[in-house]
Write a structure and sequence with these properties.
about 325 residues, six-stranded mixed beta sheet, alpha/beta, binds 4-methylsulfanyl-2-ureido-butyric acid
Length: about 325
């Protein structure tokens, strides 16, 4: 295919402002539909929503009542409570990425995302692999990070998906929040030729492991840094989308951005609220990096990369 604009995909990032623990699901869904409409009005063909877009970031609390916890989870996707979003997207012929808490029929819980085509067909499903935080609450912390308690590790790997013609046949990948800090995740998608990585997040505006050495500015810098560096090193577009603002007293960064395959931010959010950012993503612009500096078939030396899959922790030389 020639680089004549025929593979330009207009992509929207639908940043969300805060969602309270007490917000009714219907209200949050209404915000998502309004964002989708704005993206569609702007000509977006694909809208990327944040991680856990249907609820507040509930892992910041210790929730011991199983029924209360279950209320944050989706028993199926779609389900009657979220069907209006799926219906509006299909009516507007817009595809979307949506992060949500998944509860399977056999009772397992995952931090998941789904990718839906403009005709409403499901393209792919992903379960977050890199779960940050702890199993047990830490009393010294004002806000908990209990993803390891509430979710099982994702068991689907990092599959890339070929989008339909309505998405220009893009090779699409998904990540969720903390995944974006791990270059291994990007490389697994890169090795499948990914052209557009969708990543929703809820990132605290303070150091979630405690201490005073991380603030909103540094956390936002890191969020942009990992999207830019990894988009460049895998010659892919990256769409990185926040749930932002003050959720019941806990700060979340914004910093939603769309990054090109050279690692440049093309557009970024300006608020801590519901906001749509849009960019025309030329998928063929990935080819320069993929065929030259990051021509993996020619230049990678996997025989020297063994420790990356053989070990987790650091082994220092003696
Ligand atoms: N949601 C999410 O994955 N947040 C993490 C914070 C991890 S620190 C315990 C992030 O990487 O932004």
């Amino acid at each position: 295919m020639t680089n004549d604009g025929s593979r330009v995909l207009r992509v929207a990032g639908a940043q969300m402002g805060p969602t309270s623990r007490h917000d009714p699901r219907a209200r949050t869904l209404g915000r998502l539909i309004a964002l989708l409409d704005r993206a569609a009005d702007d000509g977006g063909a694909l809208v990327v929503f944040p991680e856990l877009a249907l609820t507040t970031f509930f892992p910041r609390w210790l929730i011991t009542d199983e029924r209360e916890l279950d209320a944050f989870f989706e028993p199926a996707m779609p389900n009657p409570a979220v069907q209006p979003l799926f219906d509006r997207a299909a009516a507007r012929r817009v595809g979307f990425y949506l992060g949500y808490a998944e509860r399977t029929t056999d009772g397992r819980r995952f931090n998941s995302s789904i990718l839906v085509a403009p005709d409403g067909a499901t393209i792919g499903h992903y379960r977050k692999v890199h779960l940050p935080g702890f199993v047990e609450p830490r009393p010294q912390l004002e806000w908990q990070q209990l993803e390891k308690r509430y979710f099982a590790y994702g068991d689907l790997g990092f599959p890339a998906f070929r989008g339909p013609a309505s998405l220009k046949g893009a090779i699409l990948g998904m990540m969720i929040c903390n995944d974006r800090r791990w270059p291994e995740a990007w490389r697994v998608l890169g090795l499948q030729g990914v052209e557009l990585v969708c990543c929703g997040y809820n990132t605290a505006g303070f150091g979630p492991y405690g201490g005073e050495n991380e603030d909103m500015a540094l956390r936002t810098f890191h969020s942009e840094l990992v999207a830019q560096a990894n988009a460049y090193m895998n010659a892919t577009w990256a769409v990185s989308v926040a749930k932002a603002g003050n959720e019941d007293g806990a700060a979340l960064i914004a910093g939603s951005c769309i990054v090109d395959p050279a690692g440049r931010i093309v557009v970024k959010s300006e608020t801590l609220d519901d906001e749509v950012i849009v960019a025309d993503c030329d998928l063929d612009a990935c080819r320069h990096g993929k065929q030259n500096m990051f021509d993996f078939a020619t230049h990678r030396r996997p025989m020297h990369y063994g420790p990356i899959t053989a070990q987790t922790g650091v082994r220092e030389p003696g």
